[in-house]
Amino acid sequence: MSRNYNNLMSRVFELILFGSLMLLPFVTSSFRVALFGKYLSYSIAAVGIVLLWGYTGILSLGQAVFFGLGAYALGMYLKLEASNFGLTDFMQWCGLEKLPLLWVPFKNVFIAILLGILIPALLAGALGYFTFKRSIKDVYFTLITQALAVIFVTLFIGQQPLTGGTNGLTNFKTFLGISLKDEKIKMWIYYLTLAVVIVLYVVGKVIVKKYGNILIAIRDNEERLKYLGINPLGYKITIYIFSAVLAAIGGMLFVLNVGMISPSEMGIIPSIELVLGVAIGGKVNLLGGIAGTVVAYFLKSIISENYPDIWLYLLGVVFIMISLIEYTNIKLIKNIRFSKLKKHITF
């Protein structure tokens, strides 16, 4: 009875959340619609964080790096299209006379999208293999992902002729010849983002249904899982790659909704904000992760508009609270029994 009730409430919440988001363009301004399109872009990355952190217990504070890489990949195509596929404005300011070789593949939108997914996936796969293979986890893995964010932000700021430096990529005009300034196009971009969120939410539910017990077992007691003859390495690497791909997809849609991307979106603070949104909605709840992320970024916009100096302090306090709660939960599950685990794991 309780399970049926929970399923019913979940369906009701799905209808309320997604139904409200579908009706949003009809009840608010185009400016607010674009803002919520941005929030939904972040929520795509949040789905991956729920699977990675909530279910598998791997806290990454570098997800914004993958988000930024996806955004830059599509942003490079948009910038080239705005420049008639020649030198961009910042390249001319830096004295370049020829389009850098790095930019040439991004003249093709399909290659740009493919690279926007492939590069984050390869980076996550390599990092995941070399860390998880050496049993690096918990706070040590988190610190490595923080270092990754610092490295990429520094790299992208320092390479102004290639990346636009601190300003990043801006002044996009069209996408496949369609004006990005058109109000109707902005609305369709919003609906495209919402559709991707719904599709990936369903994919996430399928993953949880099939592999959720294994992921939870990895989170709660990885060593005991090994005693059952299950090697968690492949699962950890795969879920990390998947979360990186989702972040990259979110980044590409972010560029279409916002019309810019800069290194400031790739740092530690944006990564913490993504984790915060998931924590608000419930880190083992896919729908809650989406809703929590939208709420968190909506609150950020409201607070930043009225009290611009308070947001970072509030973010720090909330993240400390999350860390304390997470530590308490880890202590509570240390003695969890795995005697019946094998019955619940299906392949």
Automatic annotation (TrEMBL):
Transmembrane segments: 12-33, 39-57, 109-132, 139-158, 188-208, 237-262, 274-299, 311-330
Keywords in alphabetical order: Cell membrane, Membrane, Transmembrane, Transmembrane helix
Subcellular location: Cell membrane
Listed GO MF terms: branched-chain amino acid transmembrane transporter activity
InterPro entries for the chain: ABC_transp_permease, ABC_transptr_urea_perm_UrtC, LivM-like
Membrane topology term: Multi-pass membrane protein
Pfam family, one: BPD_transp_2
One GO CC annotation: plasma membrane
NCBIfam families documented for this protein: urea_trans_UrtC (TIGR03408)
Protein name: Inner-membrane translocator
Organism of origin: Caldicellulosiruptor saccharolyticus (strain ATCC 43494 / DSM 8903 / Tp8T 6331)
